[in-house]
Structure formats: structure tokens, C-alpha cells
Amino acid sequence: GQTTPFGEDLKITVTGLLKKSNPERYVVNAKVQHRGLADMKIGAAEVGYVVTYPQEDGYQIEIVKADAQAATFSIQSHKTAQQN
After folding, report:
1. Calpha distance 84→73 (Å, rounded)
2. For each of the chain's 84 residues, which pLDDT tens digit applies?
3. For the chain, how many helices (H) and strands (E)?
């Protein structure tokens, strides 16, 4: 699978795209890696699936599209600006 980095500390690797029927759609298997943390696996997730990783001040990861060739993710940082 293709690995896509987000910023300096987050990477997503799509490990599988599986075709389902009724209705016809693709589900996504992926591995999410964050520097210094254990990998997180996403298994058989459909478009619209949302997860936050890491859970504390992490990234909101949403699957927005999946087809036979690729999965598209929306990544939003939840990291809050540190106030002094």
C-alpha cells in the first residue's frame, strides 16, 4: 500500500481495499502510524468512518472516498495552541 505522511508525525498506509455489494462500495483497511506511539489498525471501514488518533489532542481521520485504486482521507489536527 501507499504510505502518505501528514505533517511530521502521522502516516497512513492503505493495506487493503475490498469491494462489497448491496449497495456496491469499497471498504478500507489501513495502518495509522504516529511517531512514538503504537500503530493503530483501521479494519473494513466504510466511507464516513471517523477516528481520532492519538486520542489526546490527536488528528481526526475520516474516510471520505474509497474505490478500487485508492482511499481518500480527511485529516484535521485537534492539537490546541499552547498558551503561555
Report:
1. 33
2. 777 777 788 999 999 999 999 999 999 999 999 999 999 999 999 999 999 999 888 899 999 999 999 999 999 987 654 444
3. 0, 7
